[in-house]
Amino acid sequence: QKEVEQNSGPLSVPEGAIASLNCTYSDRGSQSFFWYRQYSGKSPELIMSIYSNGDKEDGRFTAQLNKASQYVSLLIRDSQPSDSATYLCAVRGINTGTASKLTFGTGTRLQVTL
Amino acid sequence: ETGVTQSPTHLIKTRGQQVTLRCSSQSGHNTVSWYQQALGQGPQFIFQYYREEENGRGNFPPRFSGLQFPNYSSELNVNALELDDSALYLCASSPGQGIGIGNIQYFGAGTRLSVL
């Protein structure tokens, strides 16, 4: 079982629709959860961080966390063509020694169509 | 822009050679983490440096080594390059090495290494 799992996609949504991206993780000790956006050939850019159960909203983005189900999701409202990218779910669990490493999923490719 | 800079942006090497990649961390950050991202995959943790000491390592062989300098900039060295080392190498800086809220890792633009 992979430590962090995401559907690789592509997830295709029409412009203006809601895009829903999902992620599950295996380490119950995980404490912090992040969504990064990565455009093709570019580096990951932080979109959202979430640390406690429930929803966290920032503009058109909402992150949802359910630690009991080991599940984190990202909703993008009013999707725009500029949202077309790969979305990486990252999890930070108990320290590896003293390092606070991030464990990433393989990413979900989102395509927003006109 | 994250304030994390990496050099060079692209590099082509042949199998068996050695390579050094460089990273300057964001001002005020004392922790640098290195990741390898193969095509179509998520980034994989290589190691982390905190105040000039390696304080954690992923599942990478010893031919991957690093340094952190007093100004918190860092180098990643890879010896005896293999074809599978072809990837995007990402450096991320953070304010500290703990797991506290707010200790966010910010990524540089990466170095794309091609091994022929």
Describe the structure.
The complex is a heterodimer of chains A (114) and B (116). Chain A has strands spanning 4-5, 11-14, 19-25, 32-38, 45-50, 54-58, 61-66, 71-76, 85-92, 103-104, 108-113. Chain A is mostly beta strands and 114 residues long. In chain A, the strands form two sheets. In chain A, strands 2, 4, 5, 9, 10 and 11 form a six-stranded mixed sheet that branches. In chain A, strands 1-3-8-7-6 form a five-stranded antiparallel sheet, with no helix packed on it. In chain A, strand 4 and strand 5 (45-50) form a beta hairpin. With 116 residues, chain B is mostly beta strands. In chain B, a hairpin with a 2-residue loop joins strand 5 and strand 6. The mean pLDDT of chain B is 92.
Please give the radius of gyration of chain B in angstroms. 13 Å
Shape of chain B: globular
Greatest interface by residues involved: A-B, 29 and 33 residues
Low-pLDDT runs of 5+ residues of chain A are: none
Radius of gyration of chain A: 14 Å
Number of helices of chain A: 0
**Helicity range of chain A:** under 10%
Question: How widely separated are the two ends of chain B?
Answer: 32 Å
Let me know the average pLDDT of chain A: 92
Give the beta-strand count of chain A: 11
Order of helices and strands of chain A: EEEEEEEEEEE
**Main sheet properties of chain B:** 7 strands, mixed
Please report the total strand number of chain B as a whole number.
11
Produce a short descriptive summary:
The complex is a heterodimer of chains A (114) and B (116). By secondary structure, chain A is an all-beta fold.
What structural keywords apply?
heterodimer; A: 114 residues; mainly beta; six-stranded mixed sheet; five-stranded antiparallel sheet; 11 strands; 0% helix; globular; B: 116 residues; seven-stranded mixed sheet; four-stranded antiparallel sheet; 49% strand
Helix-strand blueprint:
The complex is a heterodimer of chains A (114) and B (116).
Chain A lengths: L3 E2 L5 E4 L4 E7 L6 E7 L6 E6 L3 E5 L2 E6 L4 E6 L8 E8 L10 E2 L3 E6 L1
Parallel strand pairs in A: 2-11
Antiparallel strand pairs in A: 1-3, 3-8, 4-5, 4-9, 6-7, 7-8, 9-10, 9-11
Chain B lengths: L4 E3 L2 E4 L5 E6 L6 E7 L6 E7 L2 E5 L6 E5 L5 E5 L8 E8 L11 E2 L3 E5 L1
Parallel strand pairs in B: 2-11
Antiparallel strand pairs in B: 1-3, 3-8, 4-5, 4-9, 5-6, 7-8, 9-10, 9-11
